[in-house]
Amino acid sequence: MMVTNTNNLDSESSHNFTYDRTAEVKAFDDTKLGVKGLLDSGVTNIPRMFHHEKLNMHEISKEDSKLCVPIIDLQDIETNSSLRAQVVDKIRSACQKWGFFQVINHGVGVEVLNEMICGIRRFHEQDAEVRKTFYSRDNNKKVRYFSNVNPFRGKGANWRDTISFFLTPDPPNPEEIPIVCRDIVIEYSKKVRTLGDTIFELFSEALGLNPSYLKELESSNGQFLLGHYYPACPEPELTLGTSKHTDSDFMTVLLEDHMGGLQVLHENQWVDVHPVHGSLIVNIGDFLQLITNGRFVSVYHRVLARNTGPRISIASFFINTSTRGTSKVVGPIKELLSEENPPIYRDTTIREVMAHYFDEKGLDENIPLQPFRL
Ligand code: OGA
Ligand code: NI
Question: 286 alpha carbon to ligand 2 midpoint, in Å?
Answer without folding.
Answer: 11
